[in-house]
Amino acid sequence: MKTLNFARAAQAALIAAAIGSLNSAALADIKDYKFELVDQTVQAGPDKVFTVRLMNTKTGKAVSDAVIFATRLDMAPDGMQEMATKVLPMPGAEPGTYKFKATFGMAGRWQLSLGAKVQGETGTVENKLVITAQQ
Predict the structure, then answer these.
(1) What are all long-range contacts of 20-29, with beta carbons under 8 Å and residues at least 24 apart?
(2) H or E element that contains 20
(3) How far is CA 33 from CA 83, 110, 125, in A?
(4) Under 8 Å CB-to-CB from 44, ≥6 apart: which residues?
(5) Dihedral angle, C-alpha 97, 102, 108, 113, nearest 10 °
(6) The whole model's pTM is what?
(7) Residue-level pLDDT at 7
(8) How do residues 35-70 score in pLDDT, each as one tens digit?
(9) Checking CA distances to 1, which of 17, 67, 116, 132 falls within 20 to 30 Å?
């Protein structure tokens, strides 16, 4: 009877250890993720499409299936934070890329602020990227 109880306890301890090590080894730090622009410039005007890529900086791989819940596009880099425009999500072309459509009302530097959740990670990826709109 003692042997059976000891075997069950040992088995339970091994399973718990295995599950615990898998969870801690699989997760990265939320600071290991960042957005980057695919193209740094767009033409000024309505309905311009631009693409960003979410990268894991430790692995160098693009991250798919993130949930982007916050977007803002304004002219803060040129001192005009009040000049903001709507950002509409578009279907992405390749895994790890996220497309958006916006109206760039004038030439200049536009700041894209993004917030996203990466599946399986705790915390929020937040980045501010600068897109230059040209005439």
Answers:
(1) 26/120, 27/120, 27/121, 27/122, 28/56, 28/58, 28/121
(2) helix 2-26
(3) 28, 22, 7
(4) 104, 105, 106, 107, 133, 134, 135
(5) -60
(6) 0.77
(7) 53
(8) 999 999 999 999 999 999 999 999 999 999 999 999
(9) 17
Question: Structurally, what CATH architecture does the domain formed by 28-134 represent?
Answer: Sandwich (2.60)
Q: Indicate the helix (H) or strand (E) that contains 27.
A: none
The sign one gets for the Cα dihedral 30, 87, 49, 95 is positive
Q: Tokens 């000024």 appear where?
A: 44
CA distance 61 to 46: 32
Q: Where are the strands (E) in 6-96, listed by range?
A: 33-37, 41-43, 45-56, 61-62, 67-75, 80-85, 87-90
Q: Where do we find the tokens 């600071």?
A: 31
d(C-alpha 102, C-alpha 110), whole Å: 11
Q: 114 to each of 2, 53, 54, how far by Cα in Å?
A: 58, 11, 10
